[in-house]
Prior knowledge:
Layout: H1 3-7, E1 13-21, H2 25-32, H3 41-59, E2 78-83, E3 87-94, H4 109-112, E4 122-132, E5 138-148, H5 151-187
Antiparallel strand pairs: 1-5, 2-3, 3-4, 4-5
Amino acid sequence: MQLIDQYLPTFQFQERHTLISDLPPKILLDAVMLPGTTQDPWAKGFIRLRELPDRMLGRLGAESGLSQRPAFGLDDFMPLGRDADRELAFGLLGRFWQCDYGLVRLQEPEAQFARYTEANLAKLVLNFSTEPTPEGQTKLVTQTRVHCTDGSALRSFTPYWWLIRPVSGLIRRRLLTRIHRVAGSLHE
């Protein structure tokens, strides 16, 4: 069973993207964790745009949940585990529709994430997995699943999902390309 299935077996939202590579699974998954791999200029731009209203309020002296923290990124995700050269999984808990994302951190994410049930919250699992192809290549897959813990969270998250989904998909596809490029430089 995949880690993503262990941590988030039920979900209301999902997206999945793939890339075919000649590189071995280990190199591809190792590349995900290297500094800079996830630093895409387009992703940074979209995040900046998404965070702009809250950060501007902070600069104007109003209350801002983002003014004292760096821009949102993969560092905000909690590592949930690695299954050899098959999968890496990361979790995120929050109210992503809020200006400051409403993030919740866990002390022991691997032990606590699956059973965490706070009301009005979205649980997100992002994974990277590898699968062999019949041609002897590696299929690198990224999948995002979101489960809203109750009707209130679902009502708040649904419009947010439809707004960010096209950008999220673009970011995920670009991320797969960056992982492949970084992994290729390691494999030379």
